[in-house]
Amino acid sequence: MKVPTVGESISEVTVAQWAKKEGDYVEMDEVICELESDKATFEVTAETTGTLHIKAQEGDTLEIGGLLCVIDESTAKKTVSKKAAPAVENIPAGKVHEMHVPPVGESINEVTISTWVKQDGDFVAMDDVIAEIESDKATFELTAESEGILRIVATAGSTLEIGALICRIEGGVALAPDTPVPAAAHAAPAQASYASGHASPAASKILDEKGIPSADVKGTGRDGRITKEDAIQAEKQSTAPAKATMSATPAHATGGRTQRREKMSSLRKTVSRRLVAVKNETAMLTTFNEVNMQPIIDLRKKYKDSFKDKYEVGLGFMSFFTKACGMALQEWPAVNASIDGDEIVYSDYCDVSIAVSAPKGLVVPVIRNAENLSFDQIEREVVRLATRARENKLSIDEMTGGTFTITNGGIFGSMLSTPIINAPQSAILGMHNIVERPVVENGQVVVRPIMYVALSYDHRIIDGRESVSFLVRVKQLLEDPTRLLLGV
């Protein structure tokens, strides 16, 4: 097998990784390795059936047409009879069902196999969850399309295009209700359920903060799920030996110097790509201002209890900022616009994206028609979207179509920053932490809770007048929140 042609302008590729090893038996169309060029990553599938002999190692750079591997077809018949017989011994006669990567969104053309819930050789029933796949926008569960023995083709961590072969299910037709479960399924030891080893959102956050892998924690929850208490206990167990070691170690000894590597997730790779593209393809500038938060703090303090009693949701800062941005965007429509080729697209609605730090990375779910929502409706939507983000349950629709973004670095203690535009939008507002600072009011120095706000914008369609005026209008609305209620 030689390196195939992978693109009109691509003359060489690098062997990224081998999915199969030297001497492995491979079947036709089975993924055997990944090649990467300066533009994309490609999968190579076996052109025939037989024993694999690798000629190019991982990291080698080959020209198009260079020798990649050799597949010895002479072993095909012998290997098939030896390997396949036990696998199908007790499986009802039927065709092998091939499962391909399903379409998961209009703009998504590839996904990554996050984890396999079932193992190779497991018996699976129709609609059983067998794997998790993730795109650059969300995570999805893959369910069995038939009943039989699972044969995994794409390993965990593999990146596949939509429609690519992901696995096979032997015994392809569904078993009759009175058909006994294949012996292979009974003979195998009890498999951990999907929940086994998975951390709850609260537990996952604790483990991430403490740097403890979930694989090192034994779950005591239902079906082996890792609970919050398990995560807290794991912290105590992991720190105790360290203290004992320190007390027994000579004063001149140095600490540990271990390292660990993790493959970038599909989400993280896509976010990285998009952020670099935004910096390179937009004329991004940032303008700053400061907001006296005292009026909003006083208003929240006065009405937060009655607001919570009536609407069953807390009154936070996000609703004030979202309402203020909604009003200001309608007055300065260029800030709410985007570029599409040689045209500027102006939207008469305000779909505000809110940046949320989720376990797998930063996501930006969208609050639709924010300009028409009341304070309680905004707060409910913020809580709903943030919860779904942290549980990795956001849908594609919930993360697409925003016209403007708000990000709050203040919850992590940020004093000032220049947020990066969320393409294809043209502007983003950055909130920061609130700090008491001396300011001058009516000739007197007084202490006020001040927040710095930053507006990053694409100077190709937003001029200095629009950007500065927009931010001044937001400041005006926040420092006199009565204007938000009266619309003035």
Summarize model confidence as the mean pLDDT: 80
Could you say which structural class the secondary elements and strand pairing correspond to? alpha+beta
- What is the total tally of β strands? 26
Task: List low-pLDDT spans.
Answer: 78-93, 172-195, 238-248
Can you count the helices?
Answer: 10
- Main sheet overview: 7 strands, mixed
How does the overall form come out from the CA principal axes? elongated
Note down, in words, how this protein is organized.
- The structure is a single chain.
- By secondary structure, this protein is α+β, with helices and mostly antiparallel strands.
- Among the domains are: 1-88, RNA polymerase II/Efflux pump adaptor protein, barrel-sandwich hybrid domain (OB fold (Dihydrolipoamide Acetyltransferase, E2P), Beta Barrel), CATH 2.40.50; 267-486, Chloramphenicol acetyltransferase-like domain (Chloramphenicol Acetyltransferase).
- Helices cover 28% and strands 26% of the residues.
- The protein contains 10 helices and 26 strands.
- The chain has helices at 76-88, 183-187, 201-210, 228-248, 266-281, 294-311, 317-331, 375-390, 464-479, 482-486, and strands at residues 12-18, 25-26, 31-36, 41-45, 50-54, 61-63, 69-72, 97-100, 110-116, 123-124, 129-134, 139-143, 148-152, 159-161, 165-170, 284-292, 338-340, 343-345, 352-354, 356-358, 361-363, 366-367, 404-408, 427-431, 434-441, 444-458.
- The strands form 7 sheets. Strands 16, 19, 22, 23, 24, 25 and 26 form a 7-stranded mixed β-sheet that branches. Strands 4-3-1-6 form a 4-stranded antiparallel β-sheet, with no helix packed on it. Strands 8-15-13-10 form a 4-stranded antiparallel β-sheet, with no helix packed on it.
- α3 (201-210) packs parallel to α4 (228-248).
- It is elongated and about 90 Å long.
- The model is unreliable at 78-93, 172-195 and 238-248 (pLDDT under 50).
